[in-house]
Amino acid sequence: ALAQQAGTVVSEQQPPIELQHCTLAGGCQAEQASLVLDANWRWVHNTGGYKNCYENGAWNAEFCPNETACRKNCAVEGVDSAGYINNYGVQAEPDGVQLKFMTSGGNVGSRLYVTEGQDAYKIFKLLNREFTIDVDTSTLECGMNGAAYFIEMDRLGSKGRDDNEAGAKFGTGYCDAQCPNEKFVFDSNKGICCVEMDIWEANNRAAAWTPHPCSTVGPTKCEGIDCGYGDNGERWKGFCDKDGCDMNSYRMGAHDFYGPGPEFTVDSSKPLTVVTQFLTHDGTDNGMLSEIIRVYVQDGKVVGHANSSIPNVTGHSSVTDGFCDAQKAAFGDFNHHQAKGGLQSMGETLKRGMVLSLSVWDDFSTHMKWLDSKFPDNQEKEKLGVTRGPCDGTTSHPEYVRQHHRNAYVTYKNIKYGEIGSTFSSRVHRRLESSVHV
């Protein structure tokens, strides 16, 4: 990222968040952490002054005639406590945080990272572990997404590289499996890739969880075809599996599993606990990732994920390489997941450690149809795998969403991680025999 000097105008005051680290023997112990706002949302101005380096979608030529000059001349500014709340809609709550979709000042969405101390991101190592988070996506409508996910960012936010003097304290160093081209890089043909594990991408109509393996270790710069940006199949020639192996109950045929109201097995109009377990083939920390299991806890009931009813993919309720291969074949999708090493590759990244991101956003490029509607647009909704959710797409454009749902929000609470079976109350065994599979 450019504009990499550390700002000194506003004192950075990261909102606190409490985590719970759990073991079967000792229960859960509180850990104090913080949340930091991504650098892309921040004020970027000339060092020693107050002029915007970036305005109306363009770089100020006075400070940014080229990337190198921009890095040296521009600073990413801090955000104080009032700024987090009023400017960005980030409100600390007991045991968690609420992210408002919009603020009165016009900010839309936010993306935050969990930090360990002010200058480093917390690294979660989740192979042979489970991760649990309470979510409330009840006010997020079609076209919106409250996303909790892990990415293999650099622990220090790439501080000390490419003239980056800001680092994790200012939310720098983002990467994911889409190899994003962030606004701090001039060349739209360049990006930054890293492995991504989507725990929860959801609104109140649809939800998905998705491993995205890559051939990368840590944040990796890409250019051209390695970014997978182009058409004509280039999407599947880059460093990362951009499609991922998604588990979306609606797409897999269970249309009555997740949605708003008591008629759904998991009621999105109320908060729910989302448990994700990363099991190894031999049950040890050194084993290979063999299965990702999802469990929900709501109103005191433990609910296993819905079984797929798609022909040739029936019976699957967890993510395994077998599920991914069968799903790709049934839907006629290119199996980039397998090409990038599948769950073994994902497990190696979980063992190295990943950074937790919490966000809320809308989507100009596809209107979130990949999550909750018909996608791709040019295919018939009757084709297997094309219909991802019940939304028809007519109310999903950001202009509509921002006009009609400006008071929407997402909350994330009670973040816990630890040994399998240690983060939630139930008699659920390792393989979850006692959970309710529907």
Word description of this protein:
The protein has 438 residues and is mainly beta. Helices cover 11% and strands 29% of the residues. The chain has seven helices and 23 strands. The strands form five sheets. Strands 2, 3, 8, 9, 10, 11, 12, 14, 15, 19, 20, 21, 22 and 23 form a 14-stranded mixed sheet that branches. A three-stranded mixed sheet has the order 1-7-4. It has a two-stranded antiparallel sheet with strand order 5-6. A hairpin with a 2-residue loop joins β5 and β6. It is globular and about 60 Å long. The C terminus is likely disordered.
Features:
438 residues; 11% helix
Strand proportion: 25-35%
Mean pLDDT: 93
First-to-last CA distance:
45 Å
Global geometry: globular
Q: Give me the secondary-structure category.
A: mainly beta
Which H/E pattern describes the elements? EEEEEEHEHEEEEEEEEEEEEEEHHHEHHE
Let me know the number of strands: 23
Instruction: Bin the helical content.
Output: 10-25%
Number of helices: 7
Q: Which runs of at least 5 residues are low in confidence (pLDDT < 50)?
A: 428-438
Main β-sheet, in a few words? 14 strands, mixed
Radius of gyration: 21 Å
